[in-house]
Amino acid sequence: MEWNRWQSVGLGERDRLPEASGIYVIADSYDQVWYVGKAQNLRLRWLGKGHHRYAQLMRKNKTLRYRIYWTLVSLEWLQAKEVDYINAFKPALNGSKVKPYLPQKPQAEQEMKRLLRVLNRLTSAFPVVRSVVVGQYTEANYLHFLLVVNLHDCILLSKSRNQRAIAIRQAWSNFQSYCGRDEQTYRSMFGGRLTAKNYCLDFLVIPKLIFFLEQEIIQKTAYLETVELLGVGIKTLPSLSMLDGLKLREESMDVDSAGRRSLFDVAYLQYQRNHLSSLTHSGNF
User: Fold this and answer.
1) How does pLDDT run across 7-55, given as a tens digit for each residue?
2) CA distance 194 to 145
3) For residue 237, what are the CA distances in angstroms to 118, 184, 218, 264?
4) Which of 42, 87, 142, 244 has the fewest CB atoms found within 10 Å of its own CB?
């Protein structure tokens, strides 16, 4: 359901909506879906201040910059399509009373879902694969999912860490590891971690792995599976055996003033390799 590829207008440009039947999605600048609705005439539904959610949305429009995304749907399919999208996104405003403020949500968990959706959304730069969950492991009663991303999406993760929402900022942390190496010879490796409830997303940046997977998929070699994580369709590795054929550097050849080498993210991936279990269709949650 790629609603973000639909045509859209800002909330203040709603008079540009077409006079046709369709489904609309209200989303903010962080790709968080707040409301899903249907209309026999999209323009008339949002004309002036007539929509029952208009005043509520306008109170946060300066900071969240809402947009109305729409797709044309024939009248006989409106009801069914609306139900499908509401079930898929579970927007905060659908089914709730109209109040003078926006309801609070479990922000860290919603941020996890948003990042997973964005990181699995293909682009012109990454038309085949953009990120991959390489496996899961349990540590200190937390279920961790190890997620490899490309270098370009470091900006996306940085923006998430610096959001105004305190709950999201506090859900982010760094993890460090010597990857089983001698602490006198190596500097620790740092990674980003987003925690919600009893699970974590651990982010590693390994561009060469993403490039390798993209090339292999283009050549029709099955290296990835699609499963659901937090209700979001994600790409995952059914096995880490493919790493055996990859020559990825685990450490830098340079040394710092103390004579220690830097470790790359792939070193942590290899270190955790024996502790990782694959995500399968039966393991969705």
Assistant:
1) 999 988 999 999 999 999 999 888 888 999 999 999 998 988 888 888 8
2) 10
3) 19, 34, 16, 20
4) 244
